[in-house]
UniProtKB/TrEMBL annotation:
Domain HTH merR-type: start-end pairs: 30-97
Claim: rRNA processing is one of the keywords in the record: no
Gene Ontology MF terms: DNA binding
Protein name as catalogued: MerR family DNA-binding transcriptional regulator
InterPro entries xrefs: DNA-bd_dom_put_sf (IPR009061), MerR-type_HTH_dom (IPR000551), MerR_fam (IPR047057)
Species whose genome carries this gene: Xanthobacter oligotrophicus
Alphabetical list of SUPFAM superfamilies matching this protein: Putative DNA-binding domain
Record's keyword terms, sorted: DNA-binding
């Protein structure tokens, strides 16, 4: 089965808080680490972690990290993959399939079904743990 792009949900805002680009300039906007952290509601540490793991590669201007629009789109995909329960290694592989193209998760129907089954198993385990803890709490309250 052909890989299908999975981009539903998790839309990014249509604006950016990064530095303005000079009018008439052909340069893409650049974003600081703080700009992206605020926009996506994540920590600076998370962005540095994704960089350390090779998922993002901002440009440097001295000590300042400058993220491109492509980095911003890639971050959207990373966070969507995380939201869907994929590991960073899986996200890296899913994103790498589209390097140089529009950032997206490259998912097949089979991969979606596999991830869905994994999340349902985890939910079953969590529900069982919650039930057990409720029983223990009730017995300890008596």
């Amino acid at each position: 089965m052909d890989a299908k792009t999975f981009e539903q949900g998790f839309a990014t805002p249509a604006f950016h808080t990064g530095p303005a680009v000079a009018e008439g300039s052909r340069e893409s906007p650049l974003f600081t680490i703080g700009d992206l952290a605020r926009e996506f509601g994540i920590t600076l540490r998370a962005l540095r972690f994704y960089e350390d793991k090779g998922l993002l590669s901002p440009r440097r201007d001295g000590m300042t990290r400058l993220y491109s629009e492509a980095d911003r789109r890639r971050l959207t995909v990373i966070l969507k993959g995380k939201h869907l329960g994929f590991t960073l290694a899986e996200i890296r592989a899913l994103v790498a399939a589209h390097d140089g193209e529009e950032a997206s998760l490259s998912l097949t129907r089979d991969r979606c079904l596999t991830q869905l089954a994994q999340l349902e198993r985890q939910r079953t385990e969590i529900d069982a743990a919650i039930a057990e803890l409720k029983t223990m709490a009730t017995s300890l309250a008596a």
